[in-house]
From TrEMBL:
InterPro entries in UniProt: Rab-GAP-TBC_dom, Rab-GAP_TBC_sf, TLDc_dom
Keyword Cytoplasm: yes
Topology of the protein relative to the lipid bilayer: Peripheral membrane protein
Pfam families named among the record's database cross-references: RabGAP-TBC (PF00566), TLD (PF07534)
Keywords assigned by UniProt, alphabetized: Cell membrane, Cell projection, Cytoplasm, Cytoplasmic vesicle, GTPase activation, Membrane, Phosphoprotein, Synapse
Organism expressing this protein natively: Suricata suricatta (Meerkat)
Protein name, entry field: TBC1 domain family member 24
Task performed by this protein: May act as a GTPase-activating protein for Rab family protein(s). Involved in neuronal projections development, probably through a negative modulation of ARF6 function. Involved in the regulation of synaptic vesicle trafficking.
Amino acid sequence: MEPPGYNCFVDRDKMDAAVQDLGPKELSCAELQELKQLARQGYWARSYALRGKVYQRLIRDIPCRTVTPDASVYSDIVGKIVGKPSSSGLPLPEFVDNTQVPSYCLNARGQDAVRKILLCIANQFPDVSFCPALPAVVALLLHYSADEAQCFENACRILACNDPSRRLLDQSFLAFESSCMTFGDLVNKYCQAAHKLMVAVSEDVLQVYADWQRWLFGELPLGHLARVFDVFLVEGYKVLYRVALAILKFFHKARAGQPLGSDSVKQDIRAFVRDIAKTVSPEKLLEKAFAIRLFSRKEIQLLQMANEKALKQKGITVKQKSVSLSKRQFVHLAVHAENFHSEIVSVKEMRDIWSWVPERFALCQPLLLFSSLQHGYSLTRFYFQCEGHEPTVLLLKTTQKEVCGAYLSTDWSERNQFGGKVGFFGTGECFVFRLQPEVQRYEWVVIKHPELTRPVSSEATATPSSLGRPTSSDPADRLSPFLATRHFNLPSKTESMFMAGGTDCLIVGGGGGQALYIDGDLNRGRTGHCDTFNNQPLCSENFLIAAVEAWGFQDPDTQ
């Protein structure tokens, strides 16, 4: 059987000798759902020629700006921009952020072509300011392009996508950095064992997660990346999160019990991804990725918007040449030992809590809002001290020295909308935890059991352009309605009883019981299983309170 018909940019000797055009030669389906299944199954992965045809078709169908550079533009400008046959001596555009062109079995001519295409893209897309994934994307596309001009056109169409509901590549530092934060949030929720390890060994866990796109577009072997890209062109950006989460799960499994150093964990993950073919096949990687029951695309978009807004508020919109990534404090330094004092938790315990909170708030320092030892044992005073702050962390110590608490996403002032009655509010970002005698965190039940619900239909929800706008029930300064219960069709209200407060009691978690119930004198309380968090009792089921604290989040720049 004849080997695949590689183009002139490919080093045939470096390609897998086992690759043959064994698969089908044509693709006849047009339905998106069928394309999804075929992409995930690797329908065109065994045919080099068919993959090229499918890429051309999928990229041609991307909705783009009215004026999008095409192959003829490349032919017109390449000579003027490059100016000589070889571009190897020319610097790459700044937007690649010093990313090297991955070889991906390209010969010298192919690697030179990638550089020329990137330089021409920079000429045509002055608005693209930060896109370190692009060299890998262009290098991959070149495999399946007839010539440089066609590869240029395909890359331009990916960059010029103007469908607001379809996100492809990050093109600014703000988008890239918020994606890193979003990935960190997803790791926190879906890879808790790996996240715990990263927090333990990393001075700055976001520095580790900021590498996530490099795992895919740079370190992942060509065969694995091509399979990921097959699905990416059909399903979009969410696939990248899935695969990166799967990589982290495989890394954690492979390195469980082995020592990791804070100065080497990034390099260790990169090395693992480079050699992933030794232990994880492309099929196994995608199988793991799609076994993760992620939030809906809409919810991830809301989280991304919330992270972008947090970065904008802190003035982090472009990469500072003298600063690595952002102004974000290290997780281990976000709680400064010399500035932190609590009657309930140690610095280490507060750092553990800080590692659980959403990334956009991990940028902040803890701010003591209420202490029963300072402000007295009064629920009224508790509300007064906490109102105007969102989110907050509630900490509780019993007379038996048990310690538990809750991360509460919403301003306590929202309790006033119920006209004096006790009503539940909050979002699915809330969680409850215990620290003593052992550490345990319980998140919204829907996160681990998405089968309990399905997203509200698009007809009943806001359009992408209106996502994040405050509704009549949203405070004007709400970062986003991420995981708001109105986005989900829940079988009953018991799965969304996050927080409630009245003059006589404070409640966290409901349905079949309360995760926490505290009386109006901050004297007695009880805890039990509740449907919202599917938790075990956080301490003795009936307890006496020794101390209560509430902590807010303060931007270090305002201290």
